Amino acid sequence: MGLDKSIQYLKGVGEKRAELFNKKGIKTVGDLLYFFPRTHEDRSVVKPISQCDEGETVCISVTAYQDPQDRYVRRNMLITSLVVFDDSGMMNIVWYNNKYIKNNIKAGEKYIFFGTVTRNKQGRIQMTAPVFEKQGNERFTGKIVPVYPLTANLSQKIVQTTMETALKEAGRMAEYLPEKIREKYMIAELNFSMQNIHFPADFESYNIARTRFVFEELLVLQLALRERRQKNTQNEGRKFTDAKCIRELTDSMPFELTGAQKRTVNEICRDCMSGKQMNRLVQGDVGSGKTAVAAAAIFMAVRNGYQAAMMAPTEILAGQHADSLGELFEKHGIKTAFLSGSTKAKEKREILEKIASGEVQVVIGTHALIQEKVEFKNLGFVVADEQHRFGVEQRAKLMAKGENPHMLIMSATPIPRTLALILYGDLDISVIDELPPGRKPVKTYSVKENMRKRVYDFIEENVKKGMQAYVVCPLVAETEKSDLENAEELAKKLAENYPDINVGLMHGKMKPKEKDEMMSRFVSGEIDVLVATTVIEVGVNVPNANIMAIENAERFGLSQLHQLRGRTGRGGEQAYCILITDTDNEITKKRMDTMCESNDGFYISEQDLKLRGPGDFFGTRQHGLPEMRIANLFEDKAILKLSQEAANEISEKGLSEYPLLKKRCRALLSEDIVMN
Fold it and tell me: Taking a C-beta distance cutoff of 8 angstroms, is the pair 548, 567 a contact?
């Protein structure tokens, strides 16, 4: 059976069970084989009862002393107990609400139980809900057994059995990693690895197999993204001939660009003068000055005879860009326009006419820029701000408004330097790793919930001095399942307890217009304290907001906390961020300490990845990385380095030399890796 065959036709699967596998993204035999276990159970050693220690997960070979006994302790709580013995002693086995156990265990019969040893209230050792096999019919006793991530109605037994069938029916699979690469980096062969990743002969064999698939996963991803990048750079682009014109703009700015800003501007200039289409990501920490870099690039585009467009994810952020850039460009005779969903019909028609005629040289707006009616005379440069809020499709629609315009993508989400090339392998990358001089670091403190009143008294004190504050909550409204501080309730409490403070509320369930109105009131100073969820993570500059309190801070990732914190300290005054948490968890403490110690977003993201792991760090494909099946981008750094070296070697020779590997890379790209 081929790897591309539907899983439905595997023995023992069928249509209904195939639907359950589909929920886990498994549609073919190949998908199933690459559905790796999350862990393994070591059932290779059977221990006597007398040698079983509390907390140990073990196999025991025993005889049932009696039939399982049922008793109800409450109307809906069934406890089934069993006493078992071997030559060395006796043990209690307990199940909760499992009415089927009685049918599967008989007094006097011999069984193998596998589970964790605990002690009951009487001090006797026991197992709770162990898995078991009848002696003589053992499938997994004496083996290392895979444990898979499951979905409803899809049991371990079903997945394990189906995986065994798939391995048999797949037969000998064709190796697609080049032999020279495998030999050089000591990477195991595919068939050995596939068997031992699922059903390893021993843990050494498993580790060898895992190394192979981690290496493979990272190698294929990098090669696939490089191929996409190569395709991008092959496109002819608008060739700019004058880069020195940028000095006209930078000389008129009230500040001097930092070294990192100048370096990034030079990289953009080289791209735009090369004759090839630019696809560049500018990555910089909060407040590093990405907008100034974008302004310089847009100015160059206009001076070289082209129109430019800048797209931001929210109306208020786009409006702020339009105001600041419009004022800057006006001094140089450059006409700008602002376009959003709320632009009045008459005004919109006028703007569209001016864009089409070329009278408007720079257009700044929201998703409204990609509407069909928007036509440019000569679009040569495109900027997407806060890139993680836009999908590939949206950026492609904007770029389609011109003939191969240059694309500049900006992100304020710091990614560990070691990962940037993997995450954005189809883009050229510039990093602004320097903050403008004079910007004060935000002073950050972690406090327990019993300090909450002091925190809000501190906010009140600063509001009376003319300052503003953010208060961030993880929830919109109170739920039965959670006692986390919620935005609606907290806004109400603050308004009651601090009547002299004007309290506003903003969350994701509000309509875009309502959010924009609330934010505008905060920007204008009408609102003193804005209670919000993470909708303010990507937001506007409010120079007067110098305090942020974050409730249940342990619920947020470090990178997210850093993004939120970056909303303060925009006005030159000393800013404060107060993290309110009530947990003594060691990892939480380390995370909060990291926030208090550092304002470096790149360092913080590295620590975030280290403490939480890549699954939580990247969230729901936030950064465009396809879900890692087996690689851990932090723990597997050594293998990552090897795979980068191998990718360089293969790229130099050309992927076409390795048709099977190329096919695999193409398959990955066809899965639509959304770099958003």
Answer: yes
Q: How many percent of the chain have pLDDT more than 70?
A: 91
Q: Which SS3 state, helix, strand or coil, does residue 245 take? A: coil
**Taking a C-beta distance cutoff of 8 angstroms, is the pair 424, 625 a contact?**
no
Whether the pLDDT of residue 412 is over 90: the answer is no
Q: How would you class 660 by CB atoms within 10 Å of its CB: exposed for 0-12, middle for 13-18, buried for 19 or more? A: exposed
Nearest to 629 by CA among 614, 642, 648, 608: 614
- Confidence band of 435 (pLDDT split at 50, 70, 90): confident
Lowest-confidence pick of 1-15, 96-110, 304-318? 1-15
SS3 content of the chain, % helix, strand, coil (to 5): 40, 20, 40
Domain extents for the chain?
A: 1-42+154-171, 45-142, 246-432, 443-598
Quote the CA–CA distance of 64 and 520 in Å, as a whole number: 72
Q: What is the pLDDT of residues 542-565, one digit of tens each?
A: 888 999 999 999 888 888 888 889
Residues 392 and 399: their CA atoms lie apart, in Å, by: 10
Distance between CA atoms of residues 614 and 422, nearest Å: 13
Q: Do domains 1-42+154-171 and 443-598 have the same CATH topology?
A: no
Angle at 70 between CA 69 and CA 76, to 5 degrees: 165
Write the CA distances from 2 to 168, 195, 476, 664, integer angstroms: 12, 17, 49, 15
Considering the segment(s) 1-42+154-171 as one domain, its CATH architecture is Orthogonal Bundle (1.10)
Q: Measure Cα distances from 216 to 247, 351, 608, 662 in Å.
A: 47, 51, 25, 13
Classify 246-432 by CATH class. Answer: alpha beta
92 pairs with which residues across the strands?
A: 83, 126
Query: Topology of 443-598 in CATH?
Result: Rossmann fold (3.40.50)
Q: pLDDT value at position 226?
A: 78
pLDDT band at 33 (very low <50, low <70, confident <90, very high): very high
Provide the CATH topology of domain 45-142.
OB fold (Dihydrolipoamide Acetyltransferase, E2P) (2.40.50)
Of 290, 296, 320, 323, which is closest to residue 308 (Cα–Cα)?
A: 296
- Confidence (pLDDT) at 52: 92
